[in-house]
Amino acid sequence: MRCSTSFLANALPVRALARTLVSLLAGLAVLLADLPQPAQAQGRVAVVRDAEIEGLLADYARPILKAAGLEQRGIDIVLINNPSFNAFVAGRRIFINTGAIEAAETPNEIIGVLAHEAGHLAGGHQQRLREQLARTRTMAIVGSLLGVGALAAGTVADSRSGKSAGGALATAAPMMAKRMLLSYRRSEEINADQAAAKYLKATQQSARGMLATFERFSSGLALAGVRVDPYQQSHPLPRERIAMLQSLARESPYFDREDPGGLMQRHQMARAKIAAYMGGHPAVARLFGRGDASLAARYGDAVATDLAGNSAAALKKIDALIGAQPKSPYLREFKGEILLKLRRADEAAQAFEQALRLSGGRNGLIRARYGFALLASGKTGNATKAIENLRAGIQAEPDNLNAYLHLSQAYGLKGDIGNAELALAEGYFRAGNGREAKVFAARALAKLPKGTPAARRADDIFSVSR
């Protein structure tokens, strides 16, 4: 090894070595670019927080996660504001795009997607992917060094054929590593499909929705006239997955089982809300058709009306919907949001309180909005109750960053500036802004009584942020 290294160092011109290293790095960059990246790696993404849709996804996922043995792992489902049909896993989170829910015509389609992602988590595919990536990096580097050696030998012998062979080896090595890694990824996707079918069968649900999803992908490729190289794909080709899934799905005794009516209603309501937020009235009309008088279509119309700036008209529409579905916590929640826009904070607080009660009193997002409505009334007498509900909301949803700001305002309304500064420090700390967290933690320390739990927490934030 020492002789080989010395030979390369002495025989290879500097410019040739530089070109080879650039080729190697470019190949590795291509290899990495084809991998599904976590949301954070793709840049900033818009995370959607919505109590109604999150509750629906949690109900979809609960039996699947139990069947996969993941119910005790604290798996979170994160909603991403993106119109494409996509989902992926990172850490202990399943990320799913709003576009996937809007496009899915039945709950079973989204349940199939969640089952597939649960298959990745249960199979430990992320850890094995990291290990495989390390191996393929090594393969690319070793292959490129062999190419460098051939190139160096050609240089010494003044052989053009030797230079050509060396260059080909150096360029081909990253591609070979890439194909090896993509082949590994294809096998993992197949394993996740098989696991998903098993989970759906264990929970007595149909795999028809998952099959419909891949058939939609296959039709999209055919209509686009797409021709793909199977050796360049990280996922199996749609026709291959469809053939396998058709076999797996039809083997299940639950293939013809339909989604419960109540679940279908909730799914359509979620689609209507997403359509309204993504595209207003035109999007709702495209989804349900003009003149549709279903509860979901009317809900989408009410949301779109509010977003268009006509909150008074939206309030009438939402009241009519509450009359048709009086036990829905989310209709009450949305009514509270409309009333806040209309500057009727006391009535908004009542609506959020009713929504919280109808949801079982455990929803952290709704509780935080109730606390904010109490704060928005501007009444000093509501400050203590606002603090109580905001703190409870944060305890249930520690990453609800807006709640920290509102909690700080509630403490300020009460005249407790030390805890107001501490709430802001907590919020900035949770958001990853160490600089601002340190500033507000220092301010809180200057005002909070020494030795109290609040002062100790401020000191912790200050020390960590520093």
Automatic annotation (TrEMBL):
Enzyme Commission number, as recorded: 3.4.24.-
Alphabetically sorted, this entry's keywords are: Hydrolase, Metal-binding, Metalloprotease, Protease, Zinc
Q: What class of enzyme is it?
A: hydrolase
Superkingdom of the organism of origin: Bacteria
**Residue ranges constituting the Peptidase M48 domain according to the UniProt record:** 62-248
| Key word Zinc present | yes
Which cofactors go with this protein? Zn(2+)
> Pfam families given for it?
Peptidase_M48, TPR_8
Question: Recorded GO terms, molecular function?
Answer: metallopeptidase activity
Task: Spell out the InterPro entries in the cross-references.
Answer: Mito/Outer_Membr_Metalloprot, Peptidase_M48, TPR_rpt
- Name assigned to this protein: M48 family metalloprotease
Q: Which organism is it from?
A: Pseudohoeflea coraliihabitans
Give the classification, highest ranks.
Bacteria, Pseudomonadati, Pseudomonadota, Alphaproteobacteria, Hyphomicrobiales
